[in-house]
Design brief:
single chain; 184 residues; alpha+beta; Alpha-D-Glucose-1,6-Bisphosphate, Chain A, domain 4; seven-stranded antiparallel beta sheet; 4 helices; 7 strands; 35% strand; globular
Length: 184
């Protein structure tokens, strides 16, 4: 299994940064290799990607979502991956976005790419483009402020994601990584 952890500080309030992140259908504007995302329900998305000349489609489920704090997901078919994005208020106009992604490289090219950290470089570049995107538009393009509670521990979330850990459950109290300051 490959794990990627990256973060970036964005010059925008945490509410605006979180709100923009919930606009999944805008991801192709700043994520390399993402052709389209269709949000099929409040907690389900359909992805079409083209990476290294290989087009793939898969569905993902939001397993936990708390406004201005976090969005966690897992794949439900196709690609085997799970991840969490957390949002940390640094001050009135600055937000740290932290991404953790666990995935199973399948092809030889994916395995080599993971070994040389191409996946980490891609996430870092995507975060930089996200930062530029939200800072240049001067605010979010929309928002979804709904709340999705994490599934109970030991549920089907991990098994459905191809035995990947459900990253929304990595901290029993909060559902995932938090800033050291609980008010952030």
């Amino acid at each position: 299994m490959a794990t990627v952890q990256e973060s970036i500080d964005v010059s925008a309030p945490v509410r605006a940064v979180y709100n923009q992140w919930t606009q999944f259908e805008t991801f192709p504007q700043f994520m390399g290799g993402v052709d389209s995302i269709t949000q099929t329900s409040d907690t389900h998305t359909h992805w079409v990607t083209s990476i290294g000349g290989v087009q793939r489609e898969f569905d993902a489920e939001i397993t936990e979502q708390h406004p201005d704090e976090r969005v966690a997901w897992k794949s439900t078919d196709g690609e085997s991956h799970a991840g969490v994005v957390t949002f940390h208020r640094l001050d009135e106009g600055t937000t740290r976005v932290m991404v953790q992604l666990d995935w199973h490289p399948q092809t030889f090219t994916e395995k080599v790419g993971s070994a040389v950290h191409a996946d980490s470089h891609q996430v870092k570049a995507d975060l930089k483009r996200f930062k530029d995107f939200i800072e240049n538009i001067g605010g979010e393009t929309g928002a979804w402020r709904g709340d999705v509670s994490a599934p109970p521990s030991g549920g089907t979330a991990t098994a459905a994601a191809g035995d990947l850990p459900d990253l929304s459950l990595d901290d029993p109290e909060s559902g995932g990584p938090r800033s050291e300051n609980p008010r952030l």
